[in-house]
From TrEMBL, chain B:
GO biological process, one term: amino acid transport
Keywords linked to the UniProt accession: Amino-acid transport, Cell membrane, Membrane, Transmembrane, Transmembrane helix, Transport
The protein, known as: Amino acid ABC transporter permease
Subcellular location, record wording: Cell membrane
Bilayer topology annotation: Multi-pass membrane protein
Length: 274, 229
């Protein structure tokens, strides 16, 4: 894998990422944060993940793209063990994913997850959604958790919705609250499982903007998405999956302008020209 | 007509009808509390990630739900009290009352468990995933995210269980709680067979008056507390 190429931002890129200069956000040399080795998973007879090897470095933004049923969502969900795997290992920050119990809960607290269907806690206010994790999983005092939550809600632009119930919010607002909820745990890495697929078109950008801002701040992100614009703007690397395999990986410009594999060319030809 | 009310008054004077209903209300109240606690624990077991707990919960529900309540109540008296000499209160009547409460609770806990489980099924799986994803262990996720929503979704079936419990509390008669409604009614019919219809009517009406509010309140609550998605 050639990570060196990633730092060479293509001239055409509309918004080059600022280089903060610290070691942790240097995408070329960052420490491996998420490591998958020989990961296999079956759903019954269906082989959904085939021998996946993937390393995501600290501060890297990885976009996973591919046709539906390619296993990209399963891959994303396996990283915090919402899906179990059959063989292989997944490690986060050098620590192998525990099977169950408190150790797994602790590790999940370090991995933020944003779902396609938002999954905000329907019986709790927006503010309580964001404070629940810090208070109950980290033991943060109520006041401190609320202050942090308000700051995060402000950051994703929904501070004025803090006391509403999730059902009173638009999809885009709900998803931004979900991002704030995940960030409240101060995760080492954020997983996005098709975060804009369930949104009305006019709400896609508000969520993507929040994600781009996050990427610019140096957050390590694994994003399953079809949003080419986001990939071009914020991703360091694109991984193309098909039929449970990683078929191709490349920097976004390279992948979108000159895909190497037939499978990727075929996929891109179907989604690009509109 | 005056005669009729005089007769009615005499019946109420001679037999403690109100006290009998009060006994069933008390049986129901305590049994409902214990059944709710036990049923919640059983429901937690049945949705837990630990296979042996799931098995134990399932086994309890299947055994108890398929055992007639009369058998359980008689078991409480003849086996738990007579054979194993488990006494729950010094007074004879208090002891039988408590044994009956426990028997009723054991039986209805199985139905409470299933009512809550049906409520759990109204909670989208994404809620549990989101709870796990922010690092909540199973019990915290269940307590803070799943059960609060599941209870709201199970108010109607829980109400049905409460109604069944109230009426089933008359089975306490089989456990020597001889001052509750069914026993009192039998006694009244025995001594005043001339008022057979009236006596039946009194008890039927009494239960209708008790049950209808439960239905009304639970329907109202389940609409009012429904989780908006």
């Amino acid at each position: 894998m050639d990570h060196e190429a990633i730092t060479d931002e293509p001239v055409a890129s509309s918004a080059p990422r600022p280089t903060s200069g610290t070691a942790t956000t240097d995408r070329a040399t960052g420490e491996p944060l998420v490591e998958l080795e020989g990961v296999n998973k079956h759903f019954g007879a269906l082989h959904v993940l085939k021998d996946i090897n993937l390393t995501v470095r600290k501060g890297e933004v990885l976009v996973v793209i591919g046709p539906s049923g390619s296993g990209k969502s399963t891959l994303c969900r396996a990283i915090n063990r919402l899906e179990t795997i059959d063989t292989g290992t997944i490690a986060i920050d050098g620590q192998k994913l525990p099977e169950e119990g408190r150790a797994l809960a602790r590790l999940r607290a370090d991995v933020g997850m944003v779902f396609q269907s938002f999954n905000l806690f329907a019986h709790k206010t927006v503010l309580d959604n964001v404070t629940l994790g810090p208070r109950k999983a980290r033991g943060t005092p109520k006041k401190a958790a609320a202050d942090q939550a308000r700051a995060l809600l402000d950051r994703v632009g929904v501070a004025n919705q803090a006391n509403k119930m999730p059902a009173q919010l638009s999809g885009g607002q709900q998803q931004r609250v979900a991002i704030a909820r995940a960030l409240a745990m101060q995760p080492k890495v954020m997983l996005f499982d098709e975060p804009t697929s369930a949104l009305d078109p006019e709400m896609v950008n508000e969520v993507l903007d929040a994600m781009v801002a996050l990427a610019r701040e140096g957050m390590t992100m694994i994003v399953v998405t079809h949003e080419m614009g986001f990939a071009r703007k914020a991703a360091d690397r694109v991984v193309f999956m098909a039929d449970g395999q990683i078929v191709e990986e490349a920097p976004p410009e390279e992948f979108f302008t000159a895909p190497k594999s037939d499978r990727a060319r075929d996929f891109l030809s179907k989604i690009l020209p509109h | 007509m005056d005669d009729y009310f005089a007769e009615l008054g005499e019946l109420f004077e001679r037999f403690n009808v109100v006290g009998a209903f009060w006994t069933n209300i008390q049986l129901t109240f305590w049994a409902a509390l214990i059944a709710l606690a036990l049923g919640t624990v059983l429901a937690l077991m049945r949705i837990s990630p630990i296979a042996s707990l799931r098995f134990a919960g399932t086994a309890y529900v299947n055994v108890i739900r398929n055992t007639p309540l009369t058998v359980i109540i008689i078991f409480m008296v003849l086996v738990v009290w007579t054979l194993f000499a488990v006494t729950l209160a010094p007074g004879f009547n208090d002891n039988f009352f408590r044994l009956a409460v426990i028997g009723l609770a054991i039986y209805h806990a199985a139905f409470v468990c299933e009512a809550i489980r049906s409520g759990v099924n109204t909670v989208p799986v994404g809620q549990a995933e989101a709870a796990r994803a922010i690092g909540l262990p199973f019990l915290a996720a269940a307590r803070l995210v799943i059960l609060p929503q599941a209870f709201r979704g199970s108010i109607a079936p829980l109400g049905n269980t409460l109604i069944a419990l109230l009426k089933n509390s008359t089975v306490a008669a089989a456990g020597s709680v001889s001052w509750e409604t069914a026993s009192t009614m039998r006694l009244m019919i025995e001594f005043r067979p001339d008022h057979l219809y009236l006596i039946f009517f009194i008890f039927a009406l009494g239960y209708v008056v008790l049950v209808i509010p439960i239905g009304v309140v639970t329907t109202w609550l389940s609409d009012r507390l429904a989780v908006k998605r």
